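step: validate -> pass
step: tokenize input -> pass
step: predict -> running
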Amino acid sequence: MTARHLSASAARTVIDAAVLEKAPDWPDTRGWQVVSAGQLLVVIEPAWRGGTRNGWRYWVDGSSTWCRRPEPSREKAAVAGLGAWQRRVTAPRS
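step: predict -> pass
step: emit ->
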């Protein structure tokens, strides 16, 4: 996770270079991750309810907060996660 504040254009550059790839522990977790220039931005995992998968949930790396509702696809979870990452790194620091 980027510890410093980024401008909107710098954050956009990081997002434009981001790729969705299988996590190293994919065989065990079925997890995916969004990575840009070797930096982990978003973690995506299947959301389970009642023993069946009901979507994909994400969290921004460096945060312990999951998304509120699962997304229907891992691609949509990646887009939503990148939006959350962008809001986090471009938020004004107090």
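step: describe -> The helical segments are 8-16, 26-29, 74-90.
step: cleanup -> pass
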